[in-house]
Structure formats: structure tokens, C-alpha cells
Amino acid sequence: MGVDNDARRAEMVAEIEAEAKATGSYTGRETFSARTLDAMRAVPRHQFVREGDLARAYVNGPLPIGQGQTISQPFIVALMTDALDLAGGERVLEIGMGSGYQTAILAALVQHVYAVEVLAELAKAAEARLRSLGRGNVSVLVGDGHAGWPEHAPYDAILVAAAASQVPDALVAQLQPGGRMVIPVGRTRMGGQELQLLSKDASGKVSQRTVLPVAFVPLVKA
Ligand code: SAH
């Protein structure tokens, strides 16, 4: 009795599209690009969750992945990805690799992803998953993402999947002029954060706007 994962993913994407519409007045994006949605349709999320969560792999919610961490909600993954307006040739820095699911979505859309994860075991498992999916355009570093990954900077886009109290200076410095960064920042009264979108213009000037209230695990100090 096979489960039809393609059908479950199609349903997940329909839910993402509905949520994009419902939140469009906050986010400024009522619809996501075809590229973003195609990547969400293509990546097998069930291969990034724990055995016991297989039945919930395509529910539009976060799931535990061990060590107190979670794989992000599909809608949030799609929103953060879409906010970066990726055209295909980019080199992207990702902080907080976790299960590697968001990494796989990015890797389907850009030239290369540089992923940083502080927990060595998660990084190792995520790297093995991506390898088994045939993803060759991902490099992984175990370390504290507050420092970014200076050796490969600057990046055309940066995605941070854990909450920072403020935007780390090193990440701003490693963003290419013309580049964009999405990052959950601060602490709202509800205990969550605000997803921020930063843009660096050609002259290096940074502007910032709030996209949506979110709830991420914290970016820990290593
Ligand atoms: N995007 C991931 C989920 C991220 S959960 C996915 O799709 O599965 C946040 C991740 O950030 C966790 O794996 C956590 O270990 C990691 N993290 C927390 N603090 C960090 C830091 N300082 N540097 C790098 N990674 C960090």
C-alpha cells in the first residue's frame, strides 16, 4: 500500500498558496513565484522527518527533528525562499541547516548553497540526506552561524532559520551589494519574532522591513 507523496505534496502546495493569499496584506506577497512552488512540489519532505512523523510529513506545520530542533513549517520555508527572489545563478548562505529541508529547496533553485549548522550530528545527517538525493551543490560547515562563512563571501542571498536578538554584523558584511537576507529577529510580546527582509543596494546601503510575525528556535551562541 503505497502512499502517494506526489499527491500529498500537491495538497501541501495548495495550502501554501492559500496561506500566501491570506497573509498577503502583511507580507506584500499574495502569490509566490512558480519557481518557489515548483521547488516545494519537487523536494521529498518525508525524507527529512523522523520515521514516526512520516504520516505528518506534508502537514503545513513544523515537526521535531531531534536535539530540541524543528523542521520549519512548509509555508514559512516557501515564504522565506520566495522573499529572496532567486533567479538561478546565486550563491546562497544558509544559517541553521537543521534537517536540510530548506537547504534542499534552495539548492534546487540556485547555483550553490553554503549551509552552516551548529549541531554536528544534525549537520552530518542533513548532509547525508542531501547526498542521497543527489544534491551536489551544497557545502556544509559545522559552526556558529553568527560569524557566517567568511571564506566564501560575499553571498547573493542569506537565509537565517533561527532567531537572532539582532541582525549579526558579520552576516550584513557578507551580503553582496544588490543582495537580500531573510532573518527572524527580536522578541515580540507573544514570545515570537518578526521575520525581517534586508536589502543591500548597489552602494552598500541596507534597508529593512518586517514581513510577518514568526516563531523560530533561537540562534544559540556556540
Ligand atoms: N531550516 C531547518 C530548520 C532549522 S531549525 C530545516 O528546514 O530543517 C534551526 C536550526 O538552527 C537548528 O538546527 C539549530 O541547531 C540551528 N542553530 C541554532 N543556533 C545556531 C547557530 N548559532 N549557528 C548555526 N546554526 C544554529
Descriptive report:
By secondary structure, the protein is α/β, with parallel strands linked by helices. It has one domain (5-213): 3-Layer(aba) Sandwich (Rossmann fold), CATH 3.40.50. Helices cover 31% and strands 26% of the residues. The chain has six helices and nine strands. The longest helix is centred in the first third of the chain and has 23 residues, at 5-27. The chain is globular. Bound molecules: S-adenosyl-L-homocysteine. S-adenosyl-L-homocysteine is lined by residues 65, 69-72, 95-96, 98-99, 101-102, 116-119, 122, 144-146, 161-162, 217, 219-220, 222. S-adenosyl-L-homocysteine (SAH) is lined by residues 65, 69-72, 95-96, 98-99, 101-102, 116-119, 122, 144-146, 161-162, 217, 219-220, 222.
